């Protein structure tokens, strides 16, 4: 049976990287998206060691920027005629509030807006597959929370945990809205909570939060175990237009986290926000295959297929602020 085509955001570290390499090992073709060229090259190195150099791709981009995310969607379209699965993993914790150059709070931009754009923007490529799915690795089932409808960017009383929790709620509503709007009759939308996994815990933490994260690291599930529900879902997509699960166990969609009216409201608000963001002026850049190439910044960077600027120059020019793993 022919392998699948899988796109993973947040694929240079942690669970995203684990999923990408596991799918390569099963014979799939995989593209990861991230902002760190060195980590992208390391992923391609690992793919080559698996004998999958011709099936591995890295798209360099900062997914906290709307214009960059839109560019990535076009780049993926030049790589593949279809996508069987879109796996959304990228996020990054911030103890101190940060705003992107486009004016969005960073958690909101990366954890929610990029996933909204990728979900709706990839519909044509997903529709070309037999059993397409979007697998949004977020936090369904994590418990009640609050959406600040009048302050989505947390301009008042910011706390990193609250902002991250809101991002999870927004992604729950993203899935519901996608199922209601039905931009595709074929795509299945899956909201998946993997539990606490010993991933990269990408973030910029204050001392108190760092201590809490260190405790989580000690008790967290290893990546190899934590990605098992994701791999199982990719092997056997659900039949329902939308579903949710926590560590492999189904979650009811009857709760307030999946409210239809709230999902419709969020869709309208999101479209309004996105309509004001101009297209990206940046040049495209894709790395594919093996890594017998030049060295830049201490990392061997592939030159088998690239367009646009030299990766070392683009790395220096990338927008700073978010960590490498979170905007992976």
UniProtKB/TrEMBL annotation:
It holds the Pfam family adh_short. InterPro entries: NAD(P)-bd_dom_sf, SDR_fam, Sec_Metab_Biosynth_Oxidored. The keyword Phosphoprotein does not apply. Residues 307-316 have a biased composition (Basic residues). It comes from the Bacteria. Residues 296-328 are annotated as: Disordered. Keywords: Oxidoreductase. This is SDR family NAD(P)-dependent oxidoreductase. It comes from Pseudonocardia yunnanensis. The lineage of its organism: Bacteria, Bacillati, Actinomycetota, Actinomycetes, Pseudonocardiales.
